[in-house]
Each structure stands twice: as C-alpha cells, then as structure tokens.
Amino acid sequence: MPSSFTLRTSSTAAPSVLFQLSLDVDAHIASTPGSRETAVGGVTRGRLGPGDTVTWRAWHLGVRWRMTSRVETEGWDEPRTFTDRQVRGPFRAFAHVHTFVPTTAGTLMIDEVTLASPLLAALSERVVLVPYLRWLLRRRADLLVEAAERPRPPLSTG
User: Fold this and answer.
1) Whole-model pTM above 0.85?
2) Neighbouring residues of 22: CB distance < 8 A, sequence distance ≥ 6
C-alpha cells in the first residue's frame, strides 16, 4: 500500500502568487538548498505548465537521485490546484497534489503526497522516506512562502 502525507502552510500571499512560484523551476531549485538539486531535462528554467516535464538531479539521503516529473493536464485549475507525477525515477509511484485555498489572511497551501518505493519495505518507507520527504517539502513550502511574501519595490512611473 502506498504511503501518503499532507502538509498545510499558511501565507499572506495570494493563491495566484503561490501557484506561480510552485511551478517555477528556478524557485524550486532555490527552495531546495543542500540537495544540489538541478533541472537537467525538459523545462529547465522558468515556469512549468500543463503537460510539461522536468528532470531533476539531486542528492537525497546520501544517494544521487534522478527523477522526471510531469505536470498533469487533468485536474489543472489555475490558480487553485495542479498535480505533478513521476514518469521516470526512483519511486514505484509518486504524485504531489498542490492546492491553494483563498483565506481571509491570504492562502492555505496544501501539499498532498502519495508515494511507493520499490527499494524499501513498507516499514522502512514510513520510518525513513516519508519523514525525510515531509521535512524536505516543509522546508520547501516555508521558503516558497518567504519568497511570495517578500516585499517588492514599487514600479517606477518614470
């Protein structure tokens, strides 16, 4: 049976801002310090859209990983939700549903992850892999929120 977890992150930023940042390859790389994560195939700079793929290369848990994900066209509802799914990589299955719920204070960002590993037994998956991915995605969500809430200089009217 696959493992799953959900993260909820509050932000004062608008859903559209967080939606855009969550699809930005450069923002993704900036939000994963320490893993030497780079985009090496598909869309490697800028914003992903429905049907786009990106191949990531990174170091996680002392192992070099390579994973290709596709942003699904099914379920795409800008700026409310989208799903990215592994099409090639280390997992038997991996899906990440991103949801952005407007609130009176800004946005509730919800990350729902479902994964299955071919290499680890179910217990090891739940004891090692899920806590690591929860920590990684928590850190990524916090850094995306920080970027979304960062004050921007006013536009010059010149």
Assistant:
1) yes
2) 82, 98, 100, 109, 144
